[in-house]
């Protein structure tokens, strides 16, 4: 390694820093200002409008409920799927490839896929009708069927977003040398004990990343909800979208954006504390 | 308490035969090394004994009971892995206690056993630490302590010292020997390092290409290698192999004559480098010395005998120049004779 040109690393990093600065920090500051100002003077008017809006409470509740329903299921599924492929000898790549197909589909397209299944004339009704379980077309996605709507959206989100969690978890599982599990086996640990006492603690870093990433994405849920429920199921990003495009009120939209960011940051902090990764206890 | 019978174990990975029929009996309390070059099937055999791998055919009996089909934990054994496999997220104490915890031992027994094992391996000062902060040698001790804490009938070790530097390896070797002698555990020790196997073992099983080539005490396999492979693998420098003509059941080396177990044709002389003595040229075998290396404790000569490559050792007091030809006297009691075709040695009595 030569030390003669210490500026080289900085020069190489500079473009990405400039790029991020222009496209992330500047809009961020602008949005923050937009949210807490009114006609160029500091004001909490946008915040007040947001909080007193009819849809505000429900959109917060829906977003949290959806996150609470989707993220744990996805983590458990990803762990199960990851552990299953880890046991396979041949065909691992093929299975992983199939499982990650939803990743290649945009979230709006994913919403459309599930709309075609769950709408009145969709596949689900056809099948149920064909089996004689229902007599006529049943609506699943209206404001009169909130539970069905919620379940439909949750299933679509799980279908769409589990792969990314699984990829992170599979990467984490691959990092755990098989000797750890074998040693545990020799000393009498059952498969379940090996999983809980050896594997899980050793994939903490991956688990933490997956939880943070997936939770932040869950708070940003929009397109799937929009495709399936429209405004029947208000969520935070959906409200921001409405204030921006329908009401042309950028200030309130910015207030929503800031709220989402604060929630995401808070969730991240909670995970960093709760799923602590102690470098001293890693391989 | 636990003798081990390995009965004609075969193992194939697809079309590749890793073990081609291995049989070995290990007595209770005995320390047996599986010694062989990398890829010869040592780890595979050990994993089959442990139950981490299934054999294609054959039987393993521990304490007279067949363990084929039993889970590793029901075989009454413990294992030390090559990379230690000490759990990084548990303290040293919990690592050593792991096997006992799995057996649902009460805290008093756990404490007693952990302290005993930790004492044997001198790791008491680290019991509260995490393995990450320990050196390779200390982790190695933790791995051994974890295995001994459950007081296993059988201890399996897979190249436990190979990740340590040379000095530490020597130190740990001596210590392992002391500790295991004290524990009296039947031990199978896998290594590719012949000095390790020689120093530690009651008996050595030399593994080559999926087969056991010879089983014997360190002195037996060193002095009377069953095959050319064993002679070449054990000893540093390895045994010299010199093909010589036989006339009338005799081999002539200068003024020395030896009766050999063949009538005519060729025979291979297996010659340990340190069994020769310096003599005037023409007395025994003459060696053309290409390089003479004074090693301090001895003088190592590399060159050729009868045009065939050879390495011999003379006392440090001798002086030999590069390019010189020296005469060597052979000790008839310390020669091995091998068939040039099969590479198998003739019985030592000949
Ligand atoms: N799971 C496996 N699949 C295919 N081949 C294997 C497997 N395990 C070991 N082998 C092969 O079996 C042979 C013996 O391996 P191993 O027992 O690990 O050798 P050693 O421990 O003596 O170095 C090697 O050629 C190795 O490549
Ligand atoms: Mg090996």
From TrEMBL, chain A:
Keyword check for Nuclease: no
Residue span, ABC transmembrane type-1 domain: 60-271
Residues annotated as transmembrane: 12-36, 56-82, 94-117, 147-173, 211-229, 249-272
GO CC annotations on file: plasma membrane
GO biological process: transmembrane transport
Xref: PROSITE patterns: ABC_TM1
Localization per record: Cell membrane
Membrane-protein topology: Multi-pass membrane protein
InterPro entries xrefs: ABC_transporter_permease, MetI-like, MetI-like_sf
This protein's UniProt keywords: Cell membrane, Membrane, Sugar transport, Transmembrane, Transmembrane helix, Transport
Family: Belongs to the binding-protein-dependent transport system permease family.
Official protein name in the record: Multiple sugar transport system permease protein
Organism: Rhizobium wenxiniae
From TrEMBL, chain B:
Annotated protein name in UniProt: Multiple sugar transport system ATP-binding protein
Gene3D superfamilies reported for this sequence: 2.40.50.100, Nucleic acid-binding proteins (2.40.50.140), P-loop containing nucleotide triphosphate hydrolases (3.40.50.300)
GO CC terms in record: ATP-binding cassette (ABC) transporter complex, substrate-binding subunit-containing
Annotated Pfam families: ABC_tran (PF00005), TOBE_2 (PF08402)
Chain ranges of the ABC transporter domain: 4-234
SMART domains: AAA (SM00382)
Membrane topology: Peripheral membrane protein
InterPro entries: AAA+_ATPase, ABC_transporter-like_ATP-bd, ABC_transporter-like_CS, ABC_transpr_MalK/UgpC-like, Mo/tungstate-bd_C_term_dom, NA-bd_OB-fold, P-loop_NTPase, Transp-assoc_OB_typ2
């Amino acid at each position: 390694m030569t030390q003669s040109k210490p500026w080289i690393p900085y020069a190489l990093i500079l473009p990405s820093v400039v790029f991020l600065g222009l496209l992330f920090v500047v809009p961020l500051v602008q949005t923050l200002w937009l949210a807490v100002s009114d006609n160029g003077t500091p004001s909490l008017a946008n915040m007040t409008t947001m909080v007193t809006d009819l849809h505000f409470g429900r959109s917060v509740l829906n977003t949290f409920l959806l996150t609470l329903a989707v993220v744990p299921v996805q983590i458990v599924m990803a762990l199960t799927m990851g552990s299953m492929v880890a046991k396979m000898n041949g065909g691992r790549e093929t299975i992983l490839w199939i499982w990650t197909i939803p990743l290649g589909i945009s979230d709006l397209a994913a919403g459309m896929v599930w709309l075609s299944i769950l709408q009145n004339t969709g596949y689900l009704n056809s099948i149920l009708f064909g089996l004689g379980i229902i007599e006529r077309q049943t609506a699943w996605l209206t404001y009169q069927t909130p539970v069905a709507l919620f379940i439909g959206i949750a299933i679509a989100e799980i279908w769409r977003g589990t792969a990314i969690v699984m990829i992170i978890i599979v990467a984490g599982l691959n990092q755990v040398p098989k000797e750890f599990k074998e040693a545990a086996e020799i000393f009498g640990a059952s498969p379940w004990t090996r999983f809980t006492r050896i594997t899980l603690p050793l994939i903490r870093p991956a688990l933490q990343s997956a939880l943070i990433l997936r939770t932040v994405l869950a708070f940003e849920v929009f397109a799937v909800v929009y495709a399936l429920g429209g405004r029947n199921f208000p969520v935070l990003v959906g409200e921001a979208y409405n204030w921006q495009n329908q009401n042309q009120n950028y200030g309130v939209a910015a207030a929503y954006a800031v709220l989402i960011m604060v929630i995401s940051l808070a969730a991240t902090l909670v995970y960093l504390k709760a799923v602590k990764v102690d470098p001293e206890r890693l391989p | 308490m636990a003798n081990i019978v390995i009965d004609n174990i075969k193992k194939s990975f697809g079309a590749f035969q890793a073990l081609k029929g291995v049989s070995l009996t290990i007595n209770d309390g005995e320390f047996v090394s599986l010694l062989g070059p990398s890829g010869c099937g040592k780890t595979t055999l050990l994993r089959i004994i442990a139950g981490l791998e299934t054999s294609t055919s054959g039987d393993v009996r521990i304490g007279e009971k067949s363990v084929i089909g039993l889970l590793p934990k029901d075989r009454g054994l413990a294992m030390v892995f090559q990379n230690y496999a000490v759990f990084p997220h548990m303290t040293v104490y919990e690592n050593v206690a792991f096997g006992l915890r799995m057996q649902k031992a009460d805290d008093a027994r756990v404490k007693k056993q952990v302290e005993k094992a930790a004492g044997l391996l001198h790791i008491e000062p680290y019991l509260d630490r995490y393995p990450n902060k320990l050196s390779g040698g200390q982790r190695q001790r933790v791995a051994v302590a974890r295995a001994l804490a459950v007081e296993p009938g059988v201890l399996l070790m897979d190249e436990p010292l190979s990740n340590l530097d040379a000095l530490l390896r020597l130190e740990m070797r001596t210590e392992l020997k002391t500790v295991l002698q004290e524990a009296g555990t039947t031990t199978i020790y896998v290594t590719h390092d012949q000095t390790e196997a020689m120093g530690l073992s009651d008996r050595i099983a030399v593994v080559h290409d999926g087969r056991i080539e010879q089983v014997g005490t360190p002195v037996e396999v060193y002095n009377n290698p069953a095959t050319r492979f064993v002679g070449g693998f054990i000893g540093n420098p390895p045994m010299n192999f010199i093909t010589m003509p036989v006339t009338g059941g005799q081999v002539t080396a200068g003024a020395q004559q030896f009766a050999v177990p063949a009538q005519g044709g060729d025979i291979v002389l297996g010659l340990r480098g340190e069994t020769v003595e310096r003599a005037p040229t023409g007395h025994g075998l003459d060696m053309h010395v290409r390089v003479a290396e004074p090693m301090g404790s001895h003088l190592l000569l590399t060159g050729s005998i009868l045009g065939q490559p050879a390495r011999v050792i003379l006392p440090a007091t001798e002086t030999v120049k590069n390019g010189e030809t020296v005469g060597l006297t052979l000790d008839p009691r310390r020669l091995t004779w091998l068939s040039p075709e099969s590479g198998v040695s003739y019985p030592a009595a000949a």
